[in-house]
Amino acid sequence: PPPALLLVPDFPDGGEPGAERLRRQRVCLERLGRPAAPTDVRGTVQVLGGPGPKEVTVRYTFNEWLSFVDVPAAPLPPEPPAERYGFTLCVPPSLREGSALHFAIRYRSPQGEFWDNNGGRNYTLRCCGCPGGGPAAAPP
């Protein structure tokens, strides 16, 4: 059987975003879930909300931005002063070892459009083989 695969973050794990970063950007990645296999990617986002309608989406690609998909994020219970949103990115079964998933987060409101794109580098998850070849285990 083919080796089990994992999507591994290729960016520093900063944990929860700092208050200064959230204040400056108005939106930032809070955390990623640790999927056991690269079938989906789940995460949460924090935004500094304001009055009026809001839209939080995650833009992602598997082909170095030749094409992309925008997926809406759903509201979660807030943790003041920030509002929180959850998202799930569907990963195609054709993803192979060495492939990359890149993503960035967009927040639109009457106050403007704001992005968290990891300081201009985008967030990247690399598809890596799991040692042992059995079911993939989540990293600690």
TrEMBL record:
GO CC term (a single one): protein phosphatase type 1 complex
GO biological process: regulation of glycogen biosynthetic process
InterPro entries: CBM21_dom, CBM21_dom_sf, PP1_regulatory_subunit_3
Pfam families associated with the record: CBM_21
Classification via Gene3D superfamilies: Carbohydrate binding type-21 domain (2.60.40.2440)
Single GO term (MF): protein phosphatase 1 binding
Signal peptide range: none
Domain CBM21: 19-126
Highest taxon of the lineage: Eukaryota
Protein name in the entry: PP13G phosphatase
Organism: Leiothrix lutea
Primary gene name: Ppp1r3g
